[in-house]
Amino acid sequence: MIDKKLKQALAAVQKPGRYTGGEPGSVYKDPASVDCRFAFCFPDTYEVGMSFLGMKVLYEILNARQDIWCERAFMPWVDMIEQMRKLQLPLFALESKSPLSQFDIVGFTLQYELSYTNILGMLDLAGIPFFAKDRGLDQPLIIAGGPCCCNAEPVADFFDAIQLGEGEEQLPQLCDVVIQAKKEGVDKPELLRRLAQVKGVYVPALYEVSYHSDGTIRAVTPKPGSNAPAVVEKAILPNFRHTPLPTHFTVPMVGAVHDRAMVEVLRGCVRGCRFCQAGFIYRPMRERDVSLLDQAAQDLCRNTGYEEVSLTSLSTSDHSQLEPLLDKLLAWTPKEHINLALPSLRIDNFSESLVEKTTRVRKSGLTFAPEAGTQRLRDVINKNVTEDEIEKSCKLAFEKGYTSVKLYFMMGLPTETLEDIKGIADTAQRVVDLYYQNPNKPKGRGVTVSISVACFVPKPFTPFQFAAQDTMESLRQKQQYLLSCVKSKKISVSYHDAQVSFLEAVFAKGNRKLSQVLLKAYQNGCLFDGWGDQFRFDVWEKTFAECQVDMAFFANRPIPLDEVTPWQHFDYGVSLDFLKAEYAKALSGQVTFPCNRQCSGCGANKLMGGGVCVAFDQSRVL
Length: 622
What we know:
Blueprint: H1 4-10, H2 17-20, E1 36-42, H3 46-49, H4 53-63, E2 68-74, H5 78-87, E3 105-109, H6 116-126, E4 141-145, E5 161-163, H7 167-184, H8 188-195, E6 201-202, E7 207-211, E8 217-222, E9 232-233, E10 261-264, E11 266-267, H9 277-281, E12 286-287, H10 290-304, E13 308-312, H11 322-330, E14 339-341, H12 352-361, E15 366-371, H13 375-380, H14 387-399, E16 404-411, H15 418-437, E17 448-455, H16 472-485, E18 491-495, H17 498-508, H18 514-523, H19 537-546, H20 551-555, E19 570-571, H21 576-587
Parallel strand pairs: 1-2, 1-3, 3-4, 4-5, 9-19, 10-13, 13-14, 15-16, 16-17, 17-18
Antiparallel strand pairs: 5-6, 7-8, 11-12
Helix pairs in contact: 1-5, 4-7, 6-18, 10-11, 14-15, 15-16
């Protein structure tokens, strides 16, 4: 039911559809009939949040239970925030329009470090105290999950519990603990102790952090009597291959960033790129059954009316049965006028038979990620892609009629030189030249090559967690040098804001001392820090200075191999010794083969009970 205050607010904002709910696929229940009300909060706008597959998965899993009602909430845009404050309208969930303060559990997904102030904004709008220590049983339990939880310390003081790893089984277990605690009437300290016994659940209040005089961490230890584990090991879905996929997406009323059916074909990655956090924290790589994927895609399109299916993963073309899967999908998608999207194609396995199938799907453009401009630096980052493979894949694409290529690179990588920066422009120029060397290129059509260059951000649980980030000044100089190296009008260049990447690194590698900085920054007006027109770096600089915290200490300082990191009490499967060894190999330019070619002993197999993580193709084992 939309009350008078909400109607008044909706009449004054640009996109009222963000806040009305009522979309096809939404789930409605009687609040009195459930034992647990769960608010799934995405700390960004509706359009961004409704593109997130994880919310769709967990929304369906929780709502399949009769005793739980999962609803959705998003960060209101600035015009709606103004109206809500003016009208004293608390932040609400879309389905019931109930204030978040009336829920048993309010869960946030942490997808991006620069959304942290939005979390505080949502708590503030809901009238919920910021810090966990200030909330009693009369307030919702505030929890978090998502990739940024692999170093949750900068936001740990705001959360009662933090989920490490995969939530499909873990989150229902957490809800069960809350339901049982409600029935028994236990106090909050006892509830927190029980939550800490759930696999992969980290309860920050049960741990003590001590520091050296230089600001580095001495230790993170469980408090006496807490019975909390010394090291929290991430949760993992035990039977990923045959676990059903969601088939009843909520279809957004306002266009989402990615508004289409999404089918997760695999989880994890075999590549071992040393900069890639997702590639390490989602190990081991697991595939889904082809028949299951095909049926899920059909059911999704039938239930939602979507006319596009995206085969999503970190590396879709690494699915060992991708081409048989495409054969199954192409047997019905053309007849149903369904388009297929294949993101995350890899340069080194972009085969002729695969391009034949993808040409039937789309021919507008291809995206590849060489990541570095020279072979030397690609070996440093363990990209396992050669110049010949780049040229072969682009040549093959042009022969099949493609006229547009987007290339992703990074800047500021460990050991990088200006020669590597020039190599980015040289690689793009070679791609342009390949197009014009093609005798069968379309008449009257030129080629467009887009270079997108991100600033390298060292992330926890990667071999490069020990590396320092380039200074903002150095990154800006390299950006200008790259522009000077591009000579063709066929090549366009875009790059990330060095200030944004710098702040991202601060919170990616930060500790608990940053919670006070975050709150102060929010109170100083910081919100939507990931949005260019809202980002206020001057306010952040002022806030860090007021709190007497050095930003460069976290971003621009290399971490000694024997230093205790803020995330060292977490275990995502990959051993610290392996990360150290990979960092040493990087500095000497040595490569490590992908997991499906040769096991490198990273340690992630223990999460699956030991043994080999992936099914080896013995013909490729070296």
